[in-house]
Amino acid sequence: MVRSGRNALVVGLLTTVVAFVAVIQVRSQAEVVRSLEGQDNTSLAFLIDDLHRGNDRLAEQAAALSAQRDSLRAGGGTAGAALQEEADRLRVVNGLVPVHGPGVTITVDAPLTSTDLQDAINNLRGGGAEAVAIGDRRVITGSVLKQSGNAVTVDGVALHGPWSMTAIGDPVGLPAAAGLMTRDLRADPRVRSAAYQVSPDLQIRSTVGPRPFVYGSP
Amino acid sequence: MRLRKAGGYALVAVAALAFGFLSAAQLRAQLINPSNRVQRNQALVRSVQDLERVNAGDRRRIRGLRGEISGFEKAAAQRSDATHRVAGEVADLRDHAGLSPLHGPGVVVTLAGGRPGPDAEGRTAYLVNFQDVQDTVNLLYEGGAEAVAVNGRRLSPMSGFGGAGGAILIDQGPPLNSPFTVSAVGNRTQMEQLLGEPRSLGDLRRRQQRYGLRLDVAGLPDVRLPAFDASLQVKAARGS
Questions:
Q1: What contacts B227, CB < 8 A, 6 or more positions away?
Q2: What's the Cα-to-Cα distance from B117 to each of A9, A38, A137, B130, rounded to whole Å?
Q3: d(C-alpha B138, C-alpha A88), whole Å
Q4: pLDDT (tens digit, 9 = 90+) per residue, B116-126?
Q5: Residue A103: exposed, middle, or buried by beta-carbon count in 10 A (0-12, 13-18, 19+)?
Q6: Opening angle at CA B32, ends B26 and B36, nearest 5
Q7: Which of A190, B54, B164, B172 is the least crowded, having the fewest Cβ atoms under 10 Å away?
Q8: Do residues B12 and A12 touch, judged by C-beta distance below 8 A?
Q9: Which among B127, B99, B125 has a CA at the least distance from the CA of B112?
Q10: Which among A59, A72, A145 has the least Cβ separation from residue B69?
């Protein structure tokens, strides 16, 4: 009688353990799959912030294009002026003309590399830069930055520190980006000094030359 | 007697099974609820997915609007010589800003992550990061690229790169993930030569040896690039 009671207890305990382990295992696996391939919540929060900012800019662009389309649709002899305005805007985008407007100038005394300068350009673009120059060289996405000993060449022209970077664009986003950049630079042991200046009307006189298509066909 | 005993065991087993399921479910619920980590993660993932859908919708809308504008401009260009001339100039400037599809000879570079290494560097160095992609893009421009796209996303003269870990953010996102395809139209021979030089993309090649990163180059007679479909607004800078 005692033996059969003990057997029942063993069976009961074993079955409980099996059920317990099965539930834990099944639920754990489901949660691993659901946790979006290992992305932690902080990374997801940063991603959401980036996407919000990106989507705001896309929505703004769509609104501007809608207005442009409506103006052309209305006609009334304004198409010529609208096209001229568009040509002027695209010359700025392509870096073909000198520009002026609100912006920041960042000065850094340090042996910066081409990677540092590329990072700086990315940060300025993220802050809303519409035109960027390093020293007296205008920089667009197609500009080639290369390390050459202690110098960095921009489209084949060697530049040395101390560095001066000028960006014209978003009057709110650019000073914020410049503030973060100089704070990070000051924490870099290579950097002797890093500062920035905000101006309501800066000038970038340098331009990039026209790059006609030789191989590509639109 | 034996039958009754077996029935008793079965009853105990069923009761224990139910108890086990309930206890485990209760314990899991108690473990998760205080931090709610899983639910929070799911909510964040849903937000990301919603924002990506909005992003894709806005890009479609921008493509459509640019197409409509181009149609109206072509119609207006037929009404006067002066407008015709400016419209031609605008079309050329748009082509160079990446706002039109482009095709021609070129190369396609494929980059993908390898295997994590046991050392501290190996925990991240096996991933292709945004600087690797930007180095590749720069090398292609150096080799004579006239236009470049990353994972089918065309670059503009104002494009910026960013990212964290293995995800890359270009312009207004959404993030791109490995494998990365960098496609360029331009001087195919020169681009292939430059990509083939051992000194080019030194860090990427070192990590290719060490962690098995993928770095493939294919020269093609006709590479097709889509038009840039994000924001290219100029609100502050004025030509002088």
A1: B63, B66, B98, B99, B100, B101, B154
A2: 49, 18, 41, 20
A3: 27
A4: 888 878 778 89
A5: buried
A6: 140
A7: A190
A8: yes
A9: B127
A10: A72
Across the interface, whether the CB atoms of B58 and A79 are under 8 A apart is answered no
Tokens in use for B122?
């190996």
pTM for the model:
0.81
Report d(CA A168, CA B153) in Å as an integer.
25
**Would an 8 Å CB–CB cutoff place A146 in contact with chain B?**
yes
* Chain B nearest-CA residue for A205: B240
Q: CA-CA distance, B168 to B177, in Å (whole number)? A: 6
Residue of A nearest to B55 (CA): A55
Selection from B171, B145, B141 nearest residue B231 by Cα: B171
B48-84 CB burial, b ≥16 within 10 A, e <16: beebbebbeebbebbbebbebbbebbeebbeeeeebb
Q: B216 to chain A, minimum CA–CA distance in Å? A: 22
pLDDT higher than 70, residue B222: yes
How many interchain CB pairs under 8 A, A with B?
Answer: 297
**pLDDT tens-place string over residues A130-163:** 999 999 999 999 999 999 999 999 999 999 989 9
Interface of B with A in 133-192 (CB under 8 A): 134, 137-138, 141-142, 144-147, 155-162, 164-165, 167, 169, 171-175, 185-188
Would the CA dihedral through A48, A45, B36, B41 be positive or negative?
positive
Distance CA B86, CA A88 (A): 11
By the 10 Å C-beta count (0-12 exposed, 13-18 middle, 19+ buried), A189 is classed as exposed
Which residues, in sequence order, are CB contacts of A190 under 8 Å at separation 6+? A110, A111, A112
* Residue B38 at interface with chain A, using a CB cutoff of 8 Å: yes
* pLDDT number for residue B83: 86
What the block records as the tokens of B190 is 């020169």
Predicted local confidence at residue A31, as pLDDT = 42
ipTM of the complex: 0.81
pLDDT, residue A32, reads 35
Cα–Cα dist A126/A214, whole Å: 31
The residues facing B215 across adjacent strands are: B111
pLDDT along chain A (218 residues), means of 10: 66 70 51 48 83 93 94 80 92 97 98 95 95 97 94 95 96 96 96 97 96 94
